[in-house]
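Checklist before submission:
- one chain only
- standard amino acids only
- sequence pasted in full

Submission:
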Amino acid sequence: MVVCCIGDSGNEDTTNMVIVDIKVLTGFAPDSESLKRLRAAQLVDHVEQKDNHVVMYLRELQRGVPINHSLELQQELPVQNLKPAVIKIYDYYQPSDQAETEYNYPCAAA
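Returned file contents:
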C-alpha cells in the first residue's frame, strides 16, 4: 500500500491544482477498488492511470492542512532486487515547484 500524506507549507493560503505522480513498482499494479476510492477522495479532481504511473489531480491544498490518500498495489510478477519507485508532487501551473520521495515494497529481499 502506498500512503501519501500531502501538505503545503508555502506562503499562500491555498495552492493551484497539484499533481501527484506515483510511479508503480516494477511487477505491481494498482488495485481497481483502491483506484475507485482514490477517485472519490477528498480534493481529488480526477485520477489517471497511464503506463506504469497513477496520476492524481488535486484541486488545491490548504497551507498547514495535510491530507492523506492511499493506493493499494497488487504484486503481479515476482521481481528480485526490487528498486524503489518515485512519487513526485508538483504545481500544475508551475511544474518547477515540486518535491519527490521514494517508496519500496516493505518485504522486498535485500
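Reviewer check: The helical segments are 32-39.
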